Amino acid sequence: MSLRVLGCSGAIAAGCRTTAFLLDERVLVDAGTGLGDLPLEALSRIDHVLLSHSHLDHILGVPLLADATLRQRRALGLGPIVVHALPATLQALQAHVLNDVIWPDFTRLPSAEQAALQLSPLSIGQTLSLDGRQIRVLPAAHTVPACGFAVRARDAERWTVYTGDTGPNPALWDSLRALPLAQLIIEVAFGDDEAALAARAGHHCPESLAAELLHCTPGAFPIWLTHLKPGEHEAIAAQLAARLPAHRARLLSAGQTLSLDDAD
Ligand SMILES: Nc1ncnc2c1ncn2[C@@H]1O[C@@H]2COP(=O)(O)O[C@H]2[C@H]1O
């Protein structure tokens, strides 16, 4: 099992794609601008999309994916793409995007019987089984209802965790107490000079992230940093290295593929 990073940036700029991870071939985790770098054949194989929350940088690929893959999926005899998210996220997607104004309502197009998209609600703490994988829905603390995801193969012991967009999140560490981790993908968006904005916007800066990472034994598993705002990379890396040198948290980058089989 592998997780391909299509985008992991907190905003757009040349070379910066927003969050999208491809879990093997058929499962997409968040649908940011990184999705658009996949060829049509690969897009058409995506059967499931897991959304962490309703913000545009994570969902904009959903309506575009539905339209782009409609014909190929029909020709291949494939059913609807299932979009899994918290009820509030699905409601926002339906009301504000798939509303026949911003984008056609592909939950009932091209026909009600054969719609391109199907919406499937998740709840925090739920474990979803998808094609031999277990996916646990984790709490996140953002400005809108949000979640993260933990993934493992059904027969594996340890989980790869993606936090989604979140600020300080005690509930996350409570839920991770029972989960042995293989690796952690955790967000940090701003440098410490924007700590106040990070707190308002439901994100981490190195100061708040360092406090969270005290929950992790240094070196116990790889820690990957995601969702950095463009232009913040050097400052964040230096500030975090100064605060928590032993944790050796590394910046995730688009194009990287993480193995979920042997992530020890
Ligand atoms: N109070 C705020 N002031 C300025 N920018 C904000 C504020 N709240 C949110 N944002 C920005 O809006 C962005 C929405 O997506 P993000 O949560 O990734 O990151 C957020 C911030 O970059």
From TrEMBL:
Record-linked Gene3D superfamilies: Ribonuclease Z/Hydroxyacylglutathione hydrolase-like (3.60.15.10)
GO MF terms listed in the record are: 3',5'-cyclic-AMP phosphodiesterase activity; 3',5'-cyclic-GMP phosphodiesterase activity
Q: Which CDD domains match?
A: class_II_PDE_MBL-fold
**Metallo-beta-lactamase domain segment(s):** 17-213
Q: Which GO terms describe its biological process?
A: cAMP catabolic process; negative regulation of glucose mediated signaling pathway
- Coiled-coil regions listed in the entry: none
* Naturally occurring in which organism (per UniProt): Inhella crocodyli
- Fetch the Pfam families from UniProt: Lactamase_B_2
**Which SMART domains does UniProt cross-reference here?**
Lactamase_B
Superkingdom: Bacteria
Q: What is this protein called?
A: 3',5'-cyclic-nucleotide phosphodiesterase
Under SUPFAM superfamilies, the record lists:
Metallo-hydrolase/oxidoreductase
